[in-house]
Amino acid sequence: MDEIRTIIYFSRHLQEIFWFLLRAEALFYMILQLENILTPEILQTINHQLEEAKFIDGKKTAGWHAVKVKNNEQLSNQFSEIRNLEKIIYQALNENIVFQMATIPKKIHSLRFSRYSQGMGYGSHVDDALMKEGRTDISFTIFLNSPQEYEGGELILEEVNEERSFKLSTGTIIFYPSYSLHRVETVTKGVRKVVVGWIESWIRDVQKREILFDLDTVRRSIFHKQGKTAEFDLLSKSYSNLLRFFADS
Ligand SMILES: O=C(O)CCC(=O)C(=O)O
Ligand SMILES: [Fe+2]
User: Fold this and answer.
1) Ligand 2 center to residue 181 CA distance, Å?
2) Measured between alpha carbons, how far is 72 from 70 in angstroms, rounded to an integer?
3) Which CATH superfamily is domain 21-201 in?
4) Domain boundaries, the chain
5) Cβ of 184 less than 6 Å from ligand 1
6) Which ipTM score applies to this complex?
7) pLDDT, one tens digit for every residue, the chain (249 residues)
């Protein structure tokens, strides 16, 4: 993670508070990674089901410009188990406190189980702002297989001044603001398997989400260390009122 400027205090706090949960690393502009968002058992179930499944050309769900650079395969909507698989993912995301704190989801939507075989990739693009199922404030990728199983296939976030590259362990989620250009490098060996999706957040502005995430982290830390003190109550009041103030109507 050396190449990424990690905001140390985030991960320190989160690890302290959510010692029972997972290792979270927060980067600039709310690019976060959470390990083990899916347990090994769930991953096994998903991967087992995907082996049986029919995949179709990913171009079918790409916007008019992204279609020019999209070269992958996606689980067919006709696959009998697709709703079940989606339910498993939604449940894992809904049960994860850190994910909920950081994204404040109104709607998690448009899941796509994607597969990139040798020679496949997804060139530079920006995700559509509006999809059939909702607005896209946050994009996410959950890695379904190990980075050792393929070469290439990095998810690259293209910032104004630099690029960040992510090739993460099985069961890890990365989520990032949907406003950025990004791409998936061509897979040169093996197969890359992911599920991607989008979040319409109650808080569409990333800076506001970051303020709320900080406050929520601190109030939970105070609660964890000192219990429900007067300081906690006042901070909680500010958090709630700010959330109400910021939330989209
Ligand atoms: O596979 C990924 O990690 C991201 C794919 C992507 O950018 C998309 O489906 O819009
Ligand atoms: Fe994308």
Assistant:
1) 8
2) 6
3) q2cbj1_9rhob like domain (2.60.120.620)
4) 21-201, 206-246
5) yes
6) 0.99
7) 333 333 434 444 554 555 434 344 444 578 999 999 999 999 999 999 999 899 999 998 888 898 999 999 999 999 889 999 999 999 999 999 999 999 999 999 999 999 999 999 999 999 999 999 999 999 999 999 999 999 999 999 998 888 999 999 999 999 999 998 999 999 999 999 999 999 999 999 999 999 999 999 999 999 999 999 999 999 999 999 999 999 985
